[in-house]
Amino acid sequence: MMRQTDKRAALSRSVLDLAGAAAPAAPAKPAEKPSAAGRGIVGQALDVHKQGLLERVAELEAARSSEEASGVRLVELNPAQVRERLPADRDGRALRDPAFEELKASIRDKGQDTPIVVRRAGPGYELAAGRRRLAACRELELPVLARVMDLDDDAMLALQYRENAERADISVWERGRWFARLASEQGRSTTQLARLFGISQPSIVEYLKLGRLPEPLIGRLTDPRELSLSDGRRLHAAASGDAAALERMVVALDAAEGLTTREQLARALAAAAGKARAAPVPRSSLRGRVVVDARGRKLLTITRSGNQWIYRWAPEVDEATVSAMADRLAALLGDEGGLSEH
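C-alpha cells predicted for ParB/RepB/Spo0J family partition protein (342 residues):
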C-alpha cells in the first residue's frame, strides 16, 4: 500500500502535469514515468480529468478556427458601437409595447439568449438583425451579445427579413412599409425584392399597396400593425388617385379617434364610398380639418382660436407656396369685399 507521502507526491505530479499541458515544456532529461499502480487512484483520476480537459480545449479551438475561417465570431459590444444603417423594419410602437417590456425583463433577469447580428463598419458595427434586443440592452445599459459576420448589403437585408419571418412577430404592415422604403430609398424593383427575399412578385406588390398607404390615413389609426393585406388592397383602391375620397376618409378618421383599428377602418371605407356624406357637413366640423393633396401629403390643418380661424401649414410646404396661397385667398375674399390685408 502507498504511504501518505507517496500519495501526496503523486497528486503534486498530476497537478503540475495538468497545469503545464497547454504550454510546451523546456527540454529536460527524460524521467521514468511512474506506473499506474505507483500513481494510485487519485493520480489516475487526475489523468482522466486532464485528458478530458485537453479534448475539450481541442474542440473549442477547432470551433473558433472554423468561425474565424467563415468570418463569424461572437463578441460582447457596447450598444453605442452599433449603428442602424438599414431601414427599420419595425414601427416605433414595437419598442413601447408590452412584448418589448417582457423582452427587457427577460434580458435583465436571465441574460440575452439570442445574439444580434452585425458586420464591421469602420471603427464600429452595423446592425443586420436584432433591433429590439439592441434597444433593450441600450435601455438596460448592458453590453449586447453580437455575432459578427462578413455580409454585403444584400446579405444584410436577406438576414433581416429571414429572422423576422422565422420569428413570426412582425406585422404585414411593418413588412410592407419596409419593402416600400427599400423600393424608394434604394431603388429596388419588385422583381429584385422578390428575388432577394424568395417570395413571389405579386406578393411584393400586395405588400407595397399596404406599405405605401398615405400617412394622413396611417397616422390616424389606433394601431396600423393590425391591418391585413386585404385591408391594404381596399384602402389603396379607395384612396388611390381620388383626393376627394382621401379627404373624406381623413375627416372620418378624425371623428373616429379612440375607436379600435377595425372600427376606424370600417368608417374610413364607408366615407370613401360617399356613405358618410348623406347630410351636409356642418361648419363646426372644420375645426381640426386636415387638407391633403392628391398623393395624400398633409398640406395644412384648420383650427380655431376664439373667433379666429387658423391655418397651420405643414413644415414641408415652402414659403413661396404659402405666399402664393395667401395672394389667391386675398383675391378670392377681396372680390367679395370680405377681406382687407394688414
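The CA atoms of residues 256 and 263 lie 8 Å apart.
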